[in-house]
Design brief:
This protein is mostly helical. 85% of the residues lie in helices and 0% in strands.
Length: 148
């Protein structure tokens, strides 16, 4: 249920941002999607993989220190789900960018609707990746504080 709430919230926020971007005749989002989104996501995914490696290493150290093997199995499972979610989102965003309509090709209402939907989905998935990274980093900092 929590995921559906985040998905709904990211879709609402994304559609509002896309709508305001369209009303202001700004080309920032289109330029960002076309030129900077993939490098930005690749950097975020790389940092997140490093954080996950640190977190799993830290979990192993805590288990060894407390001599309780397997106490973090559910935590590891959730971390794996988060990293898989981020990687799958990255691939979906990449595919959406391939099939996205260019802003110069908006000639009729159907192309404008497709353009709005694609941009909303891309931005919503980007926001979900940011949220997933935030959750993993929050867990990393919390674990680091508790087991120093």
């Amino acid at each position: 249920m929590r995921f559906l709430g985040h998905l709904f919230l990211s879709l609402i926020i994304s559609s509002l941002i896309i709508f305001v971007d369209h009303l202001t005749n700004s080309d920032f989002l289109n330029n960002f999607f076309d030129n900077q989104l993939i490098p930005t996501l690749a950097s975020l995914v790389g940092f997140n993989v490093a954080a996950v490696i640190f977190l799993i290493g830290r979990l192993d150290m805590v288990e060894i220190k407390n001599e309780k093997a397997g106490i973090f199995n559910n935590t590891r499972k959730e971390i794996k789900h988060s990293i898989y979610f981020i990687l799958i989102d990255f691939i979906i965003i990449f595919l959406l960018l391939i099939f996205k309509i260019d802003s110069k090709d908006l000639v009729d209402n159907i192309s404008k609707i497709k353009f709005f939907i694609f941009n909303t989905l891309i931005l919503a998935l980007f926001l979900l990746i940011i949220f997933s990274i935030f959750e993993i980093m929050k867990a990393t900092f919390r674990l680091n504080e508790k087991h120093q």
